[in-house]
Design a protein that fits this description.
The structure holds two protein chains of two kinds. Chain A is mostly helical. Chain A is built from eleven helices and no strands. Chain A has helices at 3-24, 28-48, 52-76, 81-85, 88-110, 117-120, 132-143, 145-166, 180-185, 188-191, 206-212. Chain B has one domain (2-112): Methane Monooxygenase Hydroxylase, Chain G, domain 1 (Up-down Bundle). The radius of gyration of chain B is 25 Å and the shape is flat. Classes of the chains: A mainly alpha, B mainly alpha. At the A-B interface, helix 2, helix 3, helix 7 and helix 8 of A face helix 3 of B.
């Protein structure tokens, strides 16, 4: 076993174990943290497969941004765990059926018939200065430009959907705005007014103070 | 190519050791005598008022999602910037179309007031 294989097996083991932990721990916050570990181990596996750009983007976007969002939601949201577990036995057969179906689909696509040295051949080994990012760039913006534009459309749909689902205008009387123009333009005479008035003599309050103490 | 990543691997291993080492050492070496008072939640001397989970404004979530979308856009820009010399006008135009589609989304969120915090 070469050093590279050892690294691959360690990272793959971490990825598999943390994925299993992610679906089996009870606390959703811990599940999200296990998922972060799974992403990081997967990024390492991708880098050992010489896909350095994808590995770094996985850490940057998924472990960095997406998981922070997940954690934020999971930590803050009012999730009642007891309620979530209601009907576990009742829906178990459907869940097992769906899991088996998904596993069968994945097996057909990713199973040993389609992968392995005899099907894909020995992967090309690149030299030290080879840039995976350059290769992705050369292919993505020219050959696969259609998919690239579709990604933009997908992101656009994401923006519109997120706004349409979550935007809530508050009624105007609840909102306190600052009008900066008005604040800058204001002058002393708008705010300060001298008023002439007769002096007013108040009634003496001697006894009241003693009562307070 | 992979040999360039050896220093990063060393850093990762060192980082894990730095993180796990103190935890393990305190687990092994530190005295551990828990009792009911020590294990009870402590909030400035009085009983906690409520659960830390609560309903919060969905607006925070909207800001986070919009951030992630433009974060992804950055991920598309990196390889493009590297190969711009080689892909020529076509690559420039493909990125222009990509960005203009996202600018449509940006204008939409701006006009809709999604970036405004009332």
């Amino acid at each position: 076993m070469t050093f590279e294989q050892l690294i691959f097996y360690i990272l793959a083991a971490i990825a598999v174990i943390s994925s299993l932990m992610m679906i089996s721990v009870n606390n959703p916050v811990k599940a999200a943290l296990w998922l972060v570990l799974a992403f990081i181990a997967t990024a390492g596996v991708w880098i050992t497969a010489q896909a350095e750009f994808l590995g770094i983007v996985l850490i940057l976007v998924y472990a960095g941004a997406v998981m922070v969002l997940f954690l934020f939601v999971v930590m803050m949201l009012d999730i009642n765990l007891v309620k979530l577990k209601e009907g576990f036995i009742r829906y178990l057969p459907i869940g097992v059926l769906a899991a088996l179906g998904i596993f069968a689909l994945m097996y057909m696509v990713l199973g040993p018939n389609n992968f392995g040295m005899d099907v894909t051949g020995e992967p090309v080994r690149f030299d030290a200065n080879h840039s995976n990012t350059t290769m992705i760039g050369l292919a993505l913006y020219t050959v696969h430009v259609y998919a690239f534009i579709l990604a933009a459309v997908l992101l656009l749909v994401g923006i519109v959907a997120a706004i349409a689902l979550t935007i809530r205008r508050r009624p105007p009387h609840e909102v306190k705005y600052q009008n900066i123009d008005k604040q800058v333009k204001t002058q002393a005479r708008d705010r300060f007014e001298m008023i002439k008035m007769q002096p007013v003599k108040e009634k003496p309050v001697e006894n009241k103070k003693e009562e307070d103490e | 190519m992979l040999e360039n990543y050896l220093p990063i691997l060393v850093f990762v291993v060192l980082g894990v050791l730095f993180g796990v080492g103190p935890l393990l050492m305190s687990f092994v070496l530190a005295p551990n005598k828990p009792d009911a008072e020590k294990n009870s939640p402590y909030e400035c001397g009085f009983e906690p008022f409520e659960d830390s989970r609560m309903k919060f404004d969905v607006r925070f979530y909207l800001v986070a999602i919009l951030f992630i979308i433009f974060d992804l856009e950055i991920a598309f820009l990196f390889p493009w910037a590297i190969v711009l010399d080689e892909i020529g006008l076509f690559g420039l135009l493909s990125m222009a179309v990509f960005l203009s589609l996202l600018v449509v989304g940006f204008i939409y969120e701006w006009r809709k007031g999604a970036l405004e915090w009332e």
